[in-house]
Amino acid sequence: xxxxxxxxxxxxxxxxxxxxxxxxxxxxxxxxxxxxxxxxxxxxxxxxxxxxxxxxxxxxxxxxxxxxxxxxxxxxxxxxxxxxxxxxxxxxxxxxxxxxxxxxxxxxxxxxxxxxxxxxxxxxxxxxxxxxxxxxxxxxxxxxxxxxxxxxxxxxxxxxxxxxxxxxxxxxxxxxxxxxxxxxxxxxxxxxxxxxxxxxxxxxxxxxxxxxxxxxxxxxxxxxxxxxxxxxxxxxxxxxxxxxxxxxxxxxxxxxxxxxxxxxxxxxxxxxxxxxxxxxxxxxxxxxxxxxxxxxxxxxxxxxxxxxxxxxxxxxxxxxxxxxxxxxxxxxxxxxxxxxxxxxxxxxxxxxxxxxxxxxxxxxxxxxxxxxxxxxxxxxxxxxxxxxxxxxxxxxxxxxxxxxxxxxxxxxxxxxxxxxxxxxxxxxxxxxxxxxxxxxxxxxxxxxxxxxxxxxxxxxxxxxxxxxxxxxxxxxxxxxxxxxxxxxxxxxxxxxxxxxxxxxxxxxxxxxxxxxxxxxxxxxxxxxxxxxxxxxxxxxxxxxxxxxxxxxxxxxxxxxxxxxxxxxxxxxxxxxxxxxxxxxxxxxxxxxx
Length: 593
Ligand code: TEU
Known about the structure:
- By secondary structure, this protein is an alpha/beta fold.
- The protein has 3 domains: 1-30 and 517-593, Sandwich (Immunoglobulin-like), CATH 2.60.40.1180; 35-132 and 208-503, Glycosidases (TIM Barrel, Alpha-Beta Barrel); 138-190, Alpha-Beta Complex (Oligo-1,6-glucosidase, domain 2).
- The chain has 20 helices and 21 strands.
- It has an 8-stranded parallel sheet.
- A hairpin with a 2-residue loop joins strand 15 and strand 16 (538-545).
- The longest helix is centred in the middle third of the chain and has 17 residues, at 205-221.
- The two termini are 25 Å apart.
- 49% of the residues are buried.
- It binds 1-O-alpha-D-glucopyranosyl-D-fructose.
- The site of 1-O-alpha-D-glucopyranosyl-D-fructose has 12 residues, from loops.
């Protein structure tokens, strides 16, 4: 009977027009896929490696480091936008989707980089930013030039003779307003992000066709997928209802926010169309950045029978410990391990039979993982970084590791606003100070939460600027580069880097960490995050001490630990069935079944 079911499932997957999932035998109801088994390394190219001395990382820098990337054991790269851009939002404002940003190099560099990755069996996932373009994109230049231009409807316009448009807030506008008046045609255009990032109008079939065509040309070049920036925003309620103050300011992960700003009536129609017209034709992965999407909606994006996207990024983990008042303010109560377990467990469970999730603790929009979720003090930075990698690489979701986290880079913690480069922080600073806010507490919290914390240049060695550039880096290099750098960790068997490589190997060697069931152990424990991962005859117990104190756990009588698979210290105290974990100790046992 079981075999019969597998046969049906396999035949079904073969008969659909999607060549995406190879017809390999499914595991425990889940179809296998390279992007489920892969380990993703995110490269923020601006900060990775500069080879021409202009202080900005470039594609030749990535080419130079291909063997390093390979040595990590990762098999998928997610590359932040590298397209032509005036860099108002570091490449998230694209002025030509089919050209390479001149600071980053040329199309020939791109081709060489892609080949270099593929030669090493590493896939390349690009960023797709199609909720908005740059105002310097030819489409927008045309669109704003006259009301009857053929590109007029590529963007959202509100004619000024109809009065002011209903207020929408903008994430990156120094006046907080998402409609911007444009004199040429006496009309307002919509920009959820900065003034230089006008929102594309997906209601227009021509806009969508142009986007699909562009996606197709990258797939023809051989790229292996897209990470889709703020994808739920592409469909909006274009009747532009007047919203109450509460509706206007509602936060992510709140149904009402998405209801008015994103998740519009045609969202799933567009995603299905995109899948049919482009994605389904290639063996590629589509990852949706699910900003504003709640857990109840997640499967609508990625359940296989929906034929939309494959993988989903949620924001709930990142929201822990933040205050709902004020931009990127910390909640003085902090976050608890119990909440953390709840979030990551429910986001594991929601995809246990359908769809697939991703897991990340840091990226280019977030602070450094160890500063936010571990402990970046000299005493605990190393064990807590290793502990967090153990978590990321043993959970039931595709793990995303942000460059620099493999060596335990820490937050930049800038003191003055003039040192910041990020448009988000700079514009919020302008907006809040105009309103007379006391900026001191903001500046303090931003040392933990601001985006530039995770964007400081990669620390390769202890030479000037951490070996990132011979010029002046576009953003400060963290002063701790003399101690924390890649070269220093290469030959140290106890380094974070070498632990990371070991943990990557452990995941790759044991499919239980990918497809196995996930079962929390002692969910109420306030210091230790414990769970099992089991598949067939393999079962593992993961124990993670998230605290700076020793912590003990009594294992159930019927749980029999066998081999230690990995340990970020070299020993563990055990008294009978009680294990005593050192601060931030992480250990994985195989279990005797
Ligand atoms: O970020 C989307 C997004 O939700 C951001 O507003 C995010 O919540 C914020 O940066 C957190 O501080 C994507 C990109 O990842 C980001 O870099 C871009 O700036 C943004 O879209 C606009 O394209």
